[in-house]
Amino acid sequence: MCTTRKKSVRRSCLAAPLGASNFTLPLPDRPFPNPLAICEKGPDGWTLLANPDTGAAVAVNPTGALVWRLTDGRRTVSDIVAGVRRRYPDAPDCVADDVTGLLGTLTDEGLIGREVQAGEQCKRQ
Q1: Potential cystine with 109: which of 30, 48, 56, 122 (Cβ 3.0-4.6 Å)?
Q2: Residues near 90 by Cβ (< 8 Å), separated by ≥ 6?
Q3: How far is residue 125's CA from residue 85's CA, in Å, rounded to a whole number?
Q4: Under CATH, to which class is 13-19+26-112 assigned?
C-alpha cells in the first residue's frame, strides 16, 4: 500500500513531515523550490529538507529526493510524475498520488511554491 490514512489525513509514503501542518495550500502548476531551503542528504539515503524561514522540516526517502530535484519551476506536476516513472518503471499505479501528496506537503511547509513574476501582484485567497 502506498499511502496511509491517519485521522482522515492522506500521507504520502515518500515523506515524513517533522512538524504538523494545519492547512493545505493550492498546488502550483509548476512548483518552484524555495531558494532558501536547506537540503541535507543523510547516510541512510533519506534527505532532510528544511525551511529556515519557518523552521519547518520534511524528511524524504530517495524517491522523495528525486521529486525535490525535479522541482525546478519549469516542470509541471505531470512532468515530475513522469520523471519518477522513468526512474522507477516498476512503481505502483499510485505513484502520481504519492508525488502529488509530497508536493502538497512541501507546499504547506513553504519548501515549494510558484515563481512570481516581477510586477505581479500577490493575491490572498
Answers
A1: 56
A2: none
A3: 33
A4: alpha beta
Residue type present at position 62:
P
Q: Which residue has the cell 531558494?
A: 35
Looking at residues 58-63, what average pLDDT do you find?
Answer: 96
pTM: 0.76
Q: What is the pLDDT of residues 1-42, one digit of tens each?
A: 233 333 323 344 555 455 544 556 678 889 999 999 999 999
Assigned C-alpha cell, 93: 499505479
Q: How confident is the model at residue 124 (pLDDT cuts 50, 70, 90)?
A: low
Domain ranges of the chain: 13-19+26-112
pLDDT of residue 3: 35
28: left (phi over 0), alpha (psi -120 to 50) or beta: beta
